Structure formats: structure tokens, C-alpha cells
Amino acid sequence: MINPRDLDEFHTYMTSGEMEKDFAEGCEHDRFYLLELLEKLMDVAETADATATKLIFKGQLAALAGVKTIESKPSTASPAAAPDKN
User: Fold this and answer.
1) Helices (DSSP H) in 1-86: which residue ranges?
2) Residue 86 exposed, middle or buried by CB count within 10 Å (0-12, 13-18, 19+)
3) Per-residue pLDDT tens digits for 44-80
4) In terms of C-beta distances under 8 Å and separation of at least 24 residues, what long-range contacts does 25-30 make, across chains too?
5) What pTM was estimated for this model as a whole?
6) What is the CA radius of gyration of the chain?
């Protein structure tokens, strides 16, 4: 599993100019690898943001509003039975 030290080292690699140098001096395969790595990191960062939000705020909005939460149940009504909003 990745740890904070690994992330710190990668952050330093990106901000120090080393990644840019490796990209400029690398072959096509190396450049593709670096771009793929950055793309994956951005995807993971989006997931981390959503997960952190979910973990931190899960149920908190309802608690702040003083509303008792009720688990939603799947609707048994058919789509045709829904009123037309037009």
C-alpha cells in the first residue's frame, strides 16, 4: 500500500523539475509512462476527495439540521406511474 512518505517523494519529484527533465529527455515509452502515472494520480485524487467527503460528512448534514435520517427504499412504482412534470 502507498504511504505518506511515498506521496511526499512523488510530490518532490514533480515539483523539483526532475519529472519535467525525465519527460523531456525520455523516450516515447518513458513519456507515455509518466503521463499515464499522472493521469492515474489525478483519478485517485478525485476518488480520495469523494471518499474523504463521504467519511467526514456522512450523516452530519442531517444531524446539523436536526433531521432524523431514514434509509431510502427502492421505489416499487413503475416509471409510468410517476406524474409528468411538463
Assistant:
1) 4-15, 18-25, 28-57, 60-65
2) exposed
3) 999 999 999 988 887 676 666 666 655 555 555 545 5
4) none
5) 0.63
6) 23
